[in-house]
Structure formats: C-alpha cells, structure tokens
C-alpha cells in the first residue's frame, strides 16, 4: 500500500510539474470574433478560419442571416504571432457557402474544404441540409481556387468535415458520422482516412479504429509524420473538448490516444493542436477563460 501511495504521489508531482512548464499566450490577431481551424501549410505559414468582415469591421452576413466564414493565411514569427494575413482567394463564380475549415496541399495547387451544399450542387432526394461535406478545388493564377468538386466518397446522408492532409499529400484525414458496415462511426463523429490515388480518385473511407476513436465525438485532426492530434469530448476529460495525441509506430499503426496535460488542455473547449518542428512550441485553439472572444488561437512554448 505504501509503495502504491508513493507511486501515485510521484506521478501526481510529475503531472503538476508539466502543467507549469509551458507558457500559453493569446495571439494579437484574436478579436471578439472566433479564430479556429488552424492547419499548417508550406513555408512556415498557417491557415485558419474566421468571419469575413466588411469595411466597417462588421461581420458579413449571408441571406440566411448567418455570418460568412472564410479561410485566411499568414506567416508565423519567432514569437508564434501570425502576421501578413490575407484571405485565401476563392473564385466567386464557384458559388460556395461558408468554408468552415480547410487544408492546402504542399505545392498550393489543391485546397480541400468543409462546406455545405448550395443550389449549384444540391443532391437529389431526402437528406439533412445541415450536413457538411468535403470539396476539392484547384488553384488557377489570377482567379484563385476554382473548379470545386464534391469528393466522390461523400454521401449526402452523412456529414463530413475538418480535412487534414498528410505531409506527403497522399492521404486525407477527416471527421464523419458514417453509419453502417465495418466502418460505422462509433460515436457522434469519428476520424477517417482516405488514400489519394489520383487527382480525382480516392480509396474508400477507413475508420481509424478504437485506439483513436471513441463513443463520443472526435474533431479537428492534424496529422504529422509521427502522431495524430485531435480533440474529443470523451469521458474523463478536463471539460468540453480536450486535445489528444495518438502516436504512430514504426509500421504506421496508431497507438492508444492519450490526453494532453494542462495547460495545453483546459476546462473549456481545446482543439486544433499544431506542434512546430522544434517539438516544444506550437499553436492551439481554445475557448478558455481570459480569451478575447469566442475561439482564440494561442501560442505555447516552454517557460
């Protein structure tokens, strides 16, 4: 009993020490409006989602009365600040609605987006119009991203979102609530993978399995060469959505997901964990207390 108690106390002190080893700073770009969906792109840059703003600083509103979301890109300085921000150019003739999250290929030639159906591509038959799906567009000089197409594996009766590309661009990770068969979603949403075989050819969605997914909801995956980071509202978390890490072993299999410690996680929603090349600092999104508005982007680094 004494040995067990001593072990428990030692582990507790280690956990507490790790809680205070990291400094987390709210970025200057944050405002009263949400900033989320961060995703790495080449050249020390990052993309993120926020509202389109009019010249007077007010949110641009769609006919539905909802604010219009779009994707922005910026560079990261040595202090983790995002600067030189510009909106990702989308061909207005594409007729897209709000873009909730996105991933861009390393060469910048392709963009994968999470969006809703519009009158231009509304499926036939009954389905939930609130469902999201994934589309891919190609970059055209002078126009921006254009020629968007719904990814062929997206079925209108299910919802798909939060695209993330592997570093080699050969695999696409995303969340979905697919039901039926061996790939059925365990909870509200699971993380899936498809192999990108050609510009318009994809493998069937593969559920990443029980080591990653749970009977709760998994969201906002970011994939690296040696780990998958994502958020989940599963039991025994700190509160809301917490960030988890599933390491990748030498044969490419995902290991059991582990919850990151505080202060990377908080009692509020935490997601979109992006680790920099130094393995010690990076960005995350959180709705934690003390923020400037809704979802804010934070920079974390060793103290």
Structure, described:
By secondary structure, this protein is mainly β. It has a single domain (25-302), classed as 5 Propeller (Tachylectin-2, Chain A), CATH 2.115.10. 6% of the residues lie in helices and 40% in strands. The protein is built from one helix and 21 strands. The protein has one helix at 2-19, and strands at 22-26, 36-41, 45-51, 69-76, 82-87, 101-104, 110-116, 132-140, 144-150, 160-165, 171-176, 190-198, 201-202, 206-207, 218-223, 227-232, 242-247, 258-259, 270-275, 282-286, 296-302. Strands 10, 11, 12, 13 and 14 form a five-stranded antiparallel beta sheet that branches. A four-stranded antiparallel beta sheet has the order 1-21-20-19, with no helix packed on it. A four-stranded antiparallel beta sheet has the order 2-3-4-5, with no helix packed on it. It is globular. The two termini are 36 Å apart. 34% of the residues are buried.
CATH topology: Tachylectin-2, Chain A
CATH superfamily: Glycosyl hydrolase domain, family 43
Indicate the radius of gyration in whole angstroms: 20 Å
Would you count the extended β strands for me? Answer: 21
- Domains counted in the coordinates: how many? 1
Helix content: under 10%
CATH class: Mainly Beta
Quick one: biggest sheet? 5 strands, antiparallel
The topology string of helices and strands comes to HEEEEEEEEEEEEEEEEEEEEE
Oligomer: single chain
Which term fits the overall shape? globular
Q: Give the low-confidence spans.
A: 1-18
Beta-strand content estimate: 35-45%
Architecture per CATH nomenclature, i.e. the level-2 architecture = 5 Propeller
Q: Give the structural class.
A: mainly beta
Q: Ends: how far apart?
A: 36 Å
Mean pLDDT across the residues is 91
